[in-house]
Give the backbone structure.
Amino acid sequence: MRIVVTVKLVPDLNAPKSIDPSTKRLVRTGMETVLNPYDEYALEAALQLREKVGGETTVTLLSMVPESSKETLRKALAMGADDAVVLSDPAFDGSDVSMTSRALALALKKLGFDLVISGGLTDDGATGGVPGAIAEHLGVPGLTNARKIDVESGALRAQRETDSGYQVVHAPLPALVSVTMAIGEPRYASLKGIMGAKKKTIATLSASDIGFDAKPKTELLRFAPPPARTKARVVEAKDGAEGARAVFDFLRERKLA
């Protein structure tokens, strides 16, 4: 069984950030990048499943990163993944959800897979749209918000989190599933894992390797820093009805109601 985990490298939350006014993109030069925390849970889910299924089950990482940043994936390899594949090409610059999902789907078709596991969100964009879009491009079932996954008789079984509990859902393989942090705390890399990760393969695929020719569908027209916060307005109301009226009037003044 081949499990592929999609992972993303994101800017360190504590690093200072700036936007290039000409490209309207985040300036990543010199900025430290880290493994997206939500994807660490996806990797943990894959490693747990490999331990259950056994046999010749493998876990491959798939990421779209600049060639200069691919060594950051060694952390995920040290946690237990078998190998990694990165998409690296200037053609991927400025990728939005549409471009990213299409590129990853094309790469998955080239690699082959039985199960794709993704984190539910990313620390930078946080759209949550990529996993579902990948499943759509691949034409496979897409299960979301899974807190537990198993493979039984060649089919995927998942507990899907809801507002009131969880649903038990099934899907035939191949399939894609996105997981929540309830899947289990990501394991720490052992010294043996860290040493072994140095020898594991990180292969590179270009846009032409996967037949990619898409263009972004999202265009950022302008950006600006948020306005300075003004002094709060304090309203004293004699009862709930008067307080509700004051809130409504405040929203109406700003054309929000």
